[in-house]
Amino acid sequence: MSVWTIKSILSWTDAYFSQRSIDSPRLTAEILLAQTLGLRRLDLYLQHDRPLERQELAAFKIFIRRRVAREPVAYITGRKGFFKEQFKVAPGVLIPRPDTETLVETAIGLLSEMERCGRQARVMELGVGSGAVIISIANACKGHLYFGSELSLVALAMACANVKAFARTSVALFRGDWLAPVTPQPLFDLILSNPPYIPSADIESLAPEIRDHEPRQALDGGADGLDAVRVILAQAGERLLPYGRLILEIGYDQKPLVKSLAQGFNWVAELDFIKDLAGHYRLAVFKK
């Protein structure tokens, strides 16, 4: 029986993934093998000639089959790096994207400005998913009050687990459909969300990792992708304090639609759009 070392199994898996058009085949092989062996990726190279035991090979083969079936790497490993942490994720919970770090950075900028003015803000995230966004913001700006809502019980449980593991200040989470459970009175300085904004007709053309594995309710934004945006805009005006802001992540081509939509809400005094690192309009910032 041939002996598989770390080096030889990585080379074989790299080729196997490449033949099956798996994205970043070498990197994926390294991440999955490191997860199997309980090592850092660097350790794979430091121990490249280490032979794998039978049970390690069996466990790694299971990971390979799951990835070839287009299950996202984050679901296989149970972790996804976002901002400064490796957050827990699982099937039924939207995987945090690098694009959404623009939302975090924008919120941190606004809250840091409030801190310099000696203000303590109330911050609310709608649809927290894994909790990665609100936890990242709270850890960066600890002097404020943080709240989050989530309709999915699966996602809410994961967000609570991430708060317990990673939050370095209080973050209060509750179950709710956007702002519906919140009393309609001015309470928040900042409301933010990464709502579902993909048009329904575009869902089938998504990569199978997304289409077949991630929760559809966190992706599907209705006919034009803006169903959730309409609901949030309708609810946010009464719940924002004077001069408060609502920040929403949007699709790269949705700026004209969002701009037109905002004109139907009298509470919106100002509307700005912010680009992500790729140069796409990624955020809509509504000021009361």
UniProtKB/TrEMBL annotation:
It holds the Pfam family PrmC_N. It is an enzyme of class 2 (transferase). GO terms for molecular function: nucleic acid binding; peptide chain release factor N(5)-glutamine methyltransferase activity. GO terms for biological process: methylation. Residues 9-78 form the Release factor glutamine methyltransferase N-terminal domain. Its EC number is 2.1.1.297. Substrate binds at residues 194-197. S-adenosyl-L-methionine binds at residues 127-131, 150, 178, 194. This is Release factor glutamine methyltransferase. It comes from Desulfobacter hydrogenophilus. The lineage of its organism: Bacteria, Pseudomonadati, Thermodesulfobacteriota, Desulfobacteria, Desulfobacterales.
